[in-house]
Design a protein that fits this description.
heterodimer, A: 7-stranded mixed beta sheet, 3-stranded antiparallel beta sheet, 12 helices, 12 strands, about 40% helix, B: alpha/beta, Aspartate Aminotransferase, domain 1, Aspartate Aminotransferase, domain 2, 2 domains
Chain lengths: ~400, ~400
């Protein structure tokens, strides 16, 4: 039995895994203590749960639990990492480097730092969405203090070469931050080997609850940050505020499950995605956005030429997908990520991000393929552009009359 | 096994089961998990839930829904106000002033200190021995022309209430931005942002987990005429004031907790006041000093010391006897220093070291208080005998 709308928007957020919800509930009911309460068992019980979760999060990414700082989510982690490091090390330099296709949480943070007097370089990815080491090398300056590159892009799912970037940054003594909100549970991350200094995580993209995330802060060599939220000195002074025990417990359990099930889950999801890819690229004039190989198995981002974006979204209400990043889709601007790959406004507008996950089934993919075939055929039937294209008119040479 | 008695409701409160019921569809259901920024059905459902919660929160504190900015909690709300306002106010050639009361929670005190490190002149408004900011002292501080002022509504340790309306009226003429940390107030006393705002309060921090809502959601209630810079950038959520995917379940819980608290607070406060009377009579019989006893306080809070008994030691013994109480502020991590609140009230350090806070709540009963007073008497007797032997 299919349940509509079929959810294919796992990169916007994931359902909480029932096992995660089950672990969380006791910390919403009888185990309600404030983990900062040092004077009684209610507090200690909550604190013990927080520390167990910290170990679970650390274990997924090969970190020491002491290197994990709880935040309210990846957006806060990105803010804390980038502003915190930029402010702390501002005496060393003022130059920051990132990529133009980063999530808004990184881009907007960089813009804020620019207003404060820092300088930021935004690397333009190649057509496949990836940056090269040479591009980064060319952008480095003697006063570069921080590089921020995401592990997995939220719109197109491509995996940036963070291992190589890490080597370069370490060699140059530059702090390297990685936004891994979209990476956990989708690809192995081993911070014991990766030369990454700061890494942002989110729970709700990995079947945990919303409202909780973490920042990895390397201890050896030690990275220091200026706190962005001051108060009771929680999280070793790096992030004050009462810890939301149930959410932390949920993130721990979600990351434990991710660690145990990632390999088999990704193989299954990869097969479904490939089926979807094959089923949709059957349609003429479709373009896959982003590198097909250097990509997490969950993501497929396709532009359908000769259909109008909004009409397409309206036509496929049986499936829940994104046309651009979830966080920016309230605006009708074409996706800045797709624009950075060199896609035209039209192709960017008519792109759909399909993101698959733990609960996606074979039937759902079959349905989606059929739906897209039918709807795109129908929309194109109504499209004069499609007709012209079929008649062999080169649309780029058409002189449109103003009216 | 006996169930321990929880006497620490100012640190955090148990979730109301009705709040849990409201949250569950957004936690473990197969349709309630959408990202509120998504345009599809899942996203719209989440957005609707947040809108409804915003109305519930606003209604409970007498604000307009558009004045509610959701955050991860009270600490973030106060940080957002202080730092967001400081960043928005264009610094001139001379350093700007800011003023906070001497008894603020660390979530106000520490961001203020951070601003002081960045060049702001920080002034602390003193309190009298009953923990209240006096109008004449406040006037003196205002003569320094602070651009930002923060005075807490109700103190977390002593429960002392400040006369925020009259302080704000006093400050209004100076054109400062006035904030109050009201985290401890809703659910215990009446809080009305419209009235506060009319008096000159521009912003107020509140949080869910002190009113039987979940941890992880709070709000800054903010006069929209104030143009703050965000603390967390990226995506433009909450009218650009607070980016990050909304914590739908916790926000829904916050909304429901606000609604329930509006309906119940008067009745519950009356009950807490009764118990507090019983508790304070018993404490007096044990020779306790009750801090700020004569001041207007939260009805559920008792802050006391037994002469010659260390507070930390006492709470440890009480925990083993099955009573969860606090020594000093629950939020501050293991600090050996005596409470800054008591110091500001001119309490001697040796007395302040004995400080124990009891904060009552819905589940507490007359029998629990009676039994607690008996256990406290025994514990105090034993501790004093040990001290005497050691001496």
């Amino acid at each position: 039995m299919l349940k509509f709308p079929i959810y294919l928007d796992y990169s916007a957020t994931t359902p909480v895994d029932p096992r995660v919800a089950e672990k969380m509930i006791p910390y919403l009911t009888e185990k309600f203590g404030n983990p900062a309460s040092r004077s009684h068992a209610f507090g200690w019980e909550a604190e013990a749960a927080v520390e167990e979760a910290r170990e679970q999060v650390a274990a997924l990414v090969g970190a020491d639990p002491k290197e994990i700082i709880w935040t309210s989510g990846a957006t806060e982690s990105n803010n804390l990492a980038i502003k915190g490091a930029a402010h702390f090390y501002s005496g060393k330099g003022k130059h920051l480097i990132t990529v133009s296709t980063e999530h808004k949480a990184v881009i907007d943070t960089m813009r804020e730092l620019e207003r404060q007097g820092f300088e930021a370089s935004y690397l333009e990815p190649q057509e496949n969405g990836l940056i090269t080491l040479d591009q980064l090398k060319a952008a480095l300056r003697p006063d570069t203090i921080l590089v921020s590159v995401m592990a997995v892009n939220n719109e197109i799912g491509v995996i940036q070469p963070i291992a190589e970037i890490g080597e370069l940054c370490r060699e140059k003594g530059i702090i390297f931050h990685v936004d891994s909100a979209q990476a956990t549970g989708k690809m192995p991350l081993d911070l014991a080997r990766l030369k990454v200094d700061l890494m942002s995580f989110s729970a709700h993209k990995t079947y945990g609850p919303k409202g909780i995330g973490a920042l990895y802060v390397r201890r050896k060599p030690r990275i220091r940050l200026e706190a962005q939220m001051h108060g009771g000195g929680h999280e070793r002074g790096l992030r004050s505020g009462t810890l939301a025990t149930h959410q932390i417990v949920g993130m721990g359990e979600a990351f434990r499950i991710a660690r145990e099930e990632m390999a088999s889950e990704n193989a299954r999801i990869g097969k479904l995605r490939d089926k979807l890819l094959k089923g949709l690229t059957d349609i003429p004039e479709t373009y896959v956005n982003g590198d097909v190989d250097q990509r997490v198995p969950h993501n497929l981002n396709i532009s359908f030429n000769f259909v109008e974006g909004e009409s397409l979204i309206m036509a496929i209400k049986e499936i829940a997908v994104s046309s651009g990043s979830a966080c920016t889709s309230a605006s009708l601007e074409p996706s800045y990520v797709l624009r950075a790959l060199g896609r035209s406004d039209e192709l960017a507008h008519s792109s759909i991000r399909f993101t698959l996950g733990r609960f996606t089934t074979d039937e759902e993919i079959d349905f989606t393929i059929k739906l897209l075939h039918a709807k795109i055929a129908k929309l194109r039937e109504l499209s004069p552009l499609w007709e012209m294209f079929q008649d062999g008119v080169d649309l780029n040479t058409v002189q449109w009359a103003a009216h | 096994m006996f169930a321990p008695v929880y006497f620490d409701y100012n640190a955090t409160t148990p979730l109301d089961t009705r709040v849990l019921q409201a949250m569950l569809p957004y936690l473990d259901d197969q349709t309630g998990y959408g990202n509120a920024s998504s345009r599809h059905e899942y996203g719209r459902k989440a957005r609707q839930a947040i809108d409804e919660a915003r109305q519930q929160v606003a209604a409970a504190v007498g604000a307009d829904p558009t004045e509610v900015v959701f955050t991860s909690g009270g600490s973030e709300a106060s940080n957002l106000f202080l730092k967001g306002a400081a960043a928005a106010i264009r610094p001139g050639p001379t350093p700007l002033n800011l003023a906070i009361s001497a008894v603020e929670h660390p979530s106000v005190r520490e961001p203020a200190r951070e601003l002081a490190r960045q060049g702001w002149q920080m002034h602390e408004v003193p309190v009298d021995p009953s923990g209240r900011v006096r109008g004449e002292d406040f006037a003196k501080t205002l003569s320094c022309r602070p651009r930002l002022v923060s005075v807490m509504f109700a103190n977390n340790e002593t429960g002392v209430l400040q006369d925020i309306v009259s302080l704000a009226q006093q400050a209004k003429a100076t054109g400062c931005w006035f904030h109050t940390d009201a985290v401890q107030a809703p659910g215990k006393v009446a809080v009305n942002f419209r009235e506060l705002n009319a008096a000159g309060v521009h912003a107020m921090s509140i949080t869910a987990h002190k009113i039987r809502g979940p941890k992880g959601a709070g709000a800054l209630v903010l006069d929209k005429r104030l143009d703050l810079r965000p603390l967390i950038a990226g995506g433009g959520h909450e009218r650009g004031l607070r980016s990050g995917t909304e914590n739908v379940a916790a926000i829904v819980g916050f909304g429901r907790a606000c609604e329930l608290s509006s309906a119940n607070w008067a009745h519950e406060s009356a009950a807490a006041l009764e118990l507090r009377g019983q508790l304070e009579n018993g404490l007096a019989a044990h020779g306790a000093i009750i801090f700020a006893q004569m001041a207007e306080r939260l009805p559920n809070t008792v802050y006391f010391a037994l002469p010659d008994i260390d507070g930390e030691t006492l709470v440890g013994k009480l925990d083993r006897a099955g009573y969860a109480v606090a020594s000093g502020s629950a939020c501050s991590s293991a600090q050996p220093e005596p409470s800054h609140v008591l110091r500001a009230m001119s309490v001697a350090d040796e007395v302040a070291r004995g400080a124990v806070r009891i904060s009552l709540g819905r589940e507490n009963t007359v029998e629990q208080v009676t039994e607690f007073l008996r256990v406290l008497g025994d514990t105090a007797f034993k501790l004093r005998r040990l001290t005497a032997l050691a001496g």
